[in-house]
TrEMBL record:
Domain named Glycosyl transferase family: residues: 158-316
Stretches that traverse the bilayer: none
Protein's organism: Patiria miniata
Alphabetized Pfam families for the sequence: Glycos_transf_1
Protein name (database record): Glycosyl transferase family 1 domain-containing protein
InterPro entries: Glyco_trans_1 (IPR001296), Glycosyltransferase_G1 (IPR052622)
GO terms of molecular function: glycosyltransferase activity
Keyword terms of this UniProt record: Glycosyltransferase, Transferase
Keyword Protease: no
Keyword Transferase: yes
Amino acid sequence: MKVIVLSALKTSTGNCSSAQRISNYLLEEGIESQLTDQDAFISPLEFNRHVVQTAADCVLAIHAYRSGKLLLECPVPYSIVFGGTDVNEHHKIHDKLVTMTMAVSKARFLVSFSKPMHDQALALWPDIGDKLYTLPQGVVTSPSSRFDFHQHLHVACGIPKHSSVFLLVAGLRPVKDPLYLVNKFSEWHMEHGNVYLVIIGPELDQQLSEKVKAIVKRLPGVEVLDPLSQSDCHRAMQECTAVVNSSLSEGMPAAILEAMDLCVPVIARNIPGNRTLITHRQTGLLYDTPEEFINLAEDLLTSPGQHAAITRQAKEFVDAHHSPQSERTTYVSLVKRMASEPG
C-alpha cells in the first residue's frame, strides 16, 4: 500500500508537524508513506499526474482549502484532516468555501481535532456527519540535549542569560496576531528589565513579517528570531518561563500541546481552540487582554506553587487525552479502509 500525505511542509508549522507525525505512524505500520508538499503543484491536473506516476493507492490531506483545491479530480480515494484555519477562517471567503465544499463532499473521511472544530465543520457542511471523526492530536516531543537556548538568545540579540523569557512560537501570519502583546510587554520590560518576549517562527506572510520586524525593532524587551529545528524548539520551550499564544483563532495548537507535554506553563489567548486544551489556572492560563496577560505573567513569576500545579495538571491532561498511540491506531485504520475501497 502506498499513501500520499499531502500538506504544507513549511518547517515550524502545525500542519507540517501533523503531517510528519502521521506519515511516521504509517511507516511504522509498514505502509509506504510519501510526504508531499502541496505548494509543489500549481493545479489539480499537475497533482493528479503525480498521483498516477507514484502509483499511490490513496491520499491523506491536511487542510480542506490548501490541500483540498488540489483534490477536486483526484483519481484515487482521499480523506481530509481539517487544519484549523480552513474551518475557522477560510470559509468566510466565498471562493474558498466553494472549493472546500467540493473537496469535502468527495472525501471518504474527514478528521477534526476537537469538538469546536467538529461542530464548525458540521455547521458548514451538515451532511458530513457519517464520515466525520473527532481525533485529538497526539503529542510527541524530542528536546535537543545539545542546544542552549539562553546562550542562543545572548548571541543572537544580547538577552542576558538569566532572564525570564516568554516564548511565542508561531508563524508570522495574521491569524497568529504576533503583535497583540508587544506594546504592553515592552512597557513591562521597561519597568522590570529581566523579562523578554521572544517570537520564533517562519515568515508566512511577507507584508506582516516586515511590519512585525519594523515594530519590534523599536520596542525594548521584544525580539523576533528565525525558526528553530523542532528538537531545538522543544529545548527552547523547556528553558523558557512560559510559552505564549496570541492567536485570533486556532484548531488545536501544536505549540501549546508540546509545551504542556514538556511541563512548561502556557499563557494563551482566551479563544475556543485554546480552551479545548486549557482550563484556566488548572492546565494553563487564559487571558482576554494584553493587560491581563501581564498580570498573569507576573503571578506566574512570583508563585512557584502555581507553576508546579499547572505544569503537573497539564502533563496529566496530555497523557490522558493526547496519546500518540491512540492517534496512530485511528489513522492507520482509516487509511487501510480508504485504500481498500473502490475508487
